[in-house]
From TrEMBL:
UniProt lineage: Bacteria, Pseudomonadati, Pseudomonadota, Gammaproteobacteria, Pseudomonadales
The keyword Oxidoreductase is assigned to this record: yes
GO biological-process terms attached to the record: benzoate catabolic process
Record SUPFAM superfamilies: FAD-linked reductases, C-terminal domain, FAD/NAD(P)-binding domain
InterPro entries (UniProt xref): FAD-bd, FAD/NAD-bd_sf, HB_mOase, RIFMO-like
Name recorded for this polypeptide: 4-hydroxybenzoate 3-monooxygenase
Origin superkingdom: Bacteria
Enzyme Commission designation: 1.14.13.2
Entry keyword set: FAD, Flavoprotein, Oxidoreductase
GO molecular function annotations of the record: 4-hydroxybenzoate 3-monooxygenase activity; FAD binding
Enzyme class: oxidoreductase
Length: 394
């Protein structure tokens, strides 16, 4: 079998890249280890930046998002019971974000792919990358017990943090930057109306909480928990009690509770590898970097990587601009590091670190208070939250 671009992984990165290439007439094949249902079963963040929305529109997968997504032009920060609204629209020159779950984005992209006739193989095993540094790379994999060989021009490694793509690059060719945070997020999804019409990121003595949503009838809440916590030890009742204690009083009084649809604990990590290219292999999305979820940058960063690689490939095939391939890593990383900084900063400001001393806590609280007292500080938070501009590919 032969294609132009082999895409490993059918998460948001692989599906979005595949769909954009499809529409540009660049042939591609997607290889995914799991079933479509498994991929759709993963519950992740749900805030889309303007650039991500625009890219989904360009991919022809935005109809439901535009109809059902909730436009948010602000969010709240809570510091020890005091509510502070960040007016995103005012401080970012009119930009907003869209609350629309990653699961729904993935579902829409899967449907768009099916409609476009793009070839995808789900439930593949033993995916291996070959001759990545040569002119003629290829991928081998097993599907229903048969071995398949896929020849291609380029490989997009969109297979997430645990994928095979990054692991196919010799360790001495990559530099890794990493921070593992000393806590996780316990998430709960419920069919209850959100406690507030905007997201609430709350810092409290008892630890951080986030009150988010998927729709006007479905809420998503998170609690900072210790790394040793087990989800089995968190009954719904215990979760709601703890959330109430971490919310400002008026919000806690309004909180509507109900049975959980899903509950899970996720660790928090910042992670980047450099470079994001090895020969004809390009790392995209979580395969090359991870952010902690504070600020909801994960999916949006994946979309900005896709934007860069897609525009480069269009120029490679359309105008013979093979010189641009060498620029992917540098272009993508420039924006990645800024989102890494913002996610790390939000995480540092809002969480309680078990090992931090009283002086450090004062410094962090003062830093956040200082940002909030200043127009420049609020602008800085808002422009990062709505998403910095995509890098130009020229
Ligand atoms: N072969 C084939 N597919 C694989 C392999 C493999 N060896 N390893 C992993 N995959 C698949 C996974 O099953 C998954 O469906 O690659 C996909 C990667 O998807 P994500 O982990 O969602 O990564 P990405 O598409 O880059 O999305 C980034 O989504 O996952 C969130 O937190 C993440 O929000 C961020 C964004
Ligand atoms: C979510 O709704 O799941 C969510 C929203 C904002 C974040 C993280 C997660 O910063």
């Amino acid at each position: 079998m032969k294609t132009q671009v082999a895409i490993i992984g059918a998460g948001p990165s692989g599906l979005l890249l595949g769909q954009l290439l499809q529409r540009a007439g660049i042939d591609n094949v997607i290889l995914e280890r799991q079933t479509p249902d498994y991929v759709l079963g993963r519950i992740r963040a749900g805030v889309l930046e303007q650039g991500t929305m625009d890219l989904l529109r360009e991919a022809g997968a935005s109809q439901r998002m535009d109809a059902e997504g909730l436009v948010h032009d602000g969010f709240e920060l809570v510091l020890d019971g005091r509510r502070e609204r960040i007016d995103l629209k005012r401080h970012s020159g009119g930009k907003t974000v869209m609350v629309y779950g990653q699961t729904e984005v993935t579902r829409d992209l899967m449907q768009a792919r099916e409609a476009s006739g793009g070839l995808s193989f789900y439930e593949t095993s033993d995916v291996q990358l070959h001759d990545v540094q040569g002119e003629k790379p290829y991928v081998t994999f097993s599907k229903d017990g048969e071995s398949v060989r896929l020849d291609c021009d380029y490989i997009a490694g969109c297979d997430g943090f645990h994928g095979v793509s990054r692991q196919s690059i010799p360790a001495d060719k990559l530099k890794t930057y990493e921070r593992v945070y000393p806590f996780g997020w316990l998430g709960l999804l419920s069919d209850t109306p959100p406690v507030n019409h905007e997201l609430i990121y709350a810092s409290s003595e008892r630890g951080f909480s986030l009150s988010s949503m998927r729709s006007n009838t479905r809420s998503r809440y998170y609690l900072q928990v210790g790394l040793d916590e087990k989800v089995e030890d968190w009954s719904d009742e215990r979760f709601w009690d703890e959330l109430k204690r971490r919310l400002p009083e008026d919000a806690a009084a309004r909180l509507v509770t109900g049975p959980s649809l899903e509950k899970s604990i996720a660790p928090l990590r910042s992670f980047v590898v450099e470079p994001l290219q090895f020969g004809r292999l390009f790392l995209v999305g979580d395969a090359g970097h991870i952010v902690p979820p504070t600020g909801a940058k994960g999916l949006n960063l994946a979309a900005s990587d896709v934007n860069s690689l897609y525009r480069i490939l269009v120029k490679v095939y359309g105008e013979g601009r093979v010189d641009l391939l060498e620029r992917y890593s540098e272009l993508a990383l420039r924006r990645i590091w800024k989102a890494e900084r913002f996610s790390w900063w939000m995480t540092s400001m809002l969480h309680r670190f078990p090992d931090s001393d009283a002086f450090t806590r004062k410094m962090l609280d003062t830093e956040l208070a200082y940002y909030l007292e200043s127009e420049a500080g609020r602008t800085c938070i808002a422009e990062n939250y709505v998403g910095l501009p995509f890098e130009e590919v020229a």
